Amino acid sequence: MFDKIIYGSRKYYAWVIFLLLVMGVGFVLYLYQLQEGLGVTGMSRDVSWGFYIAQFTFLVGVAASGLMVVLPYYLHDYKAFGKITILGEFLAVGSVLMCMTFIFVDMGKPERVMNVILHPTPNSIMFWDMTVLSVYLLLNLVIAFPMVAAEKKGLPPPYWYLKPIIYLSIAWAPLIHTVTAFLYAGLPGRHLWLTAIMAARFLASAFAAGPALLIILYLILTRVTNWTAGDKPLRKIAQIVVYAMIANMFFLGLEFFTAFYSKIPGHTHSLSYMFGIHGEMNWLVPFMWASVIIGLGSIVFMLFPQVRNNNKTLVLGCIGIFVACWIDKGLGLIVGGFIPNPLNYVREYTPTLVELGISAAIFALGALVITVLYKMVAGVREEAEA
Q1: Helices (H), the chain
Q2: Most buried one in 19, 212, 284, 380, CB count within 10 A?
Q3: Are the beta carbons of 84 and 356 closer than 8 angstroms?
């Protein structure tokens, strides 16, 4: 089945070469960062987590989102999701690999990553975050590849030993995002993160952005290959995306009410900085307002069945929801948590070209992994249907 990865059209080879070139440029930039240190990034003493950790946080949610297709199929026997569960699992594989790579490049000395393994500290949330991510990656690999191999041979999947692993992965998926949320919610000096609903906000945004991306990737896959699973699963996933996005925006509203109704200064400072409420203008303000406007607009747009039942308009709605969630978590959440600092001092942070270049390379790595895995699935199924 791995031969499906090697052979393809000219467009496929051009896309792979493009991704490899982006990865190559990013690798050179990483070598420069490794030589010069993290001073080449926009991070500082006050803002010690920046664009890298923001992307890690967002992608953990994308990885966990596979639960939205796996759970209905295996626990509720929703047959319509049968052909796309494998796509959700491979999306999780690519997302977790990107998460780990973002952590790796964020380390000033990458060999320090081994300290987590060689000197484990169970009282550290970071130790448990690494553990749950590694196990989740392994679970998805163990589940997905035997299922593709069975389809290649024209046999039913070996559920006699996969079912227990699948049920474990269903329970494990929300755990990876919950533990990541605890990384932030457990820091008393950062008022933006010090909220009991941080994990709930993480999961709501994950179950909106991740399935939205899955819809986009599935529609691209059906355009470039001859395989399709039909439109029925898309309609149901689109409903899940809308409901999850409504919950995500509701939780954001709760944060505003709690902060500004209580008038506790520490809780209002970060939100005021991010949204320019008291006249604070910075590069983040237009992005955060764009996130809210695009998010609410996409919800209203996607509430109409006519929109969800048309693939062209469905893609627009999914792109809007994905972009809104990425701005919220991939830009605002981490930066806003550090600014202002606990002494109410504002030290601005802006990602540098080095950070953006390395991040682009990591996204190219994830895109390459997902591309070859999806091509393998489509190739096997095209052959089976033929």
Answers
A1: 3-6, 10-36, 51-64, 67-75, 85-106, 113-118, 125-153, 159-185, 198-224, 232-262, 265-275, 284-303, 305-308, 311-327, 333-338, 353-385
A2: 212
A3: no
What dotted CATH number matches 3-385? 1.20.1630.10
Sign of CA dihedral 253, 257, 260, 265: negative
Contact of 144 with 86, CB cutoff 8 Å: yes
DSSP 117-157: HHS--TT-HHHHHHHHHHHHHHHHHHHHHHHHHHHHHT---
Q: Find out whether 169 and 136 touch, Cβ atoms under 8 Å.
A: yes
How far apart (Å, rounded) are the C-alpha atoms in residues 267 and 196?
Answer: 13
Q: What is the C-alpha separation between 261 and 255, in angstroms, rounded?
A: 10
Exposed e or buried b per residue across 277-297, where buried means at least 16 C-beta atoms within 10 angstroms of its C-beta: eeebebebbebbeebbebbee
pLDDT, block means (10 residues), the chain with 386 residues: 73 93 96 91 88 92 84 79 86 92 88 78 83 90 84 75 84 88 86 89 91 92 82 88 94 92 86 84 89 94 89 92 93 87 83 95 95 87 69
> Position 110: which residue type?
P
Residue 221 tokens read as 């896959």
Distance CA 369, CA 95 (A): 9
Rounded to the nearest 5°, which phi and psi values hold at 156? -70, 150
- Can you give the pTM of this predicted structure? 0.91
Tokens 């952590």, residue located: 103
Spatial distance between the Cα atoms of 305 and 6, rounded to a whole number of angstroms: 40
Q: Which tokens sit at 84?
A: 């796309």
Farthest-apart Cα atoms in the chain, separation = 66
Task: Specify whether the CB–CB gap between 312 and 353 falls below 8 A.
Answer: no
**The dihedral sign for the CA sequence 178, 179, 183, 188:** positive
Identity of the residue numbered 375: K
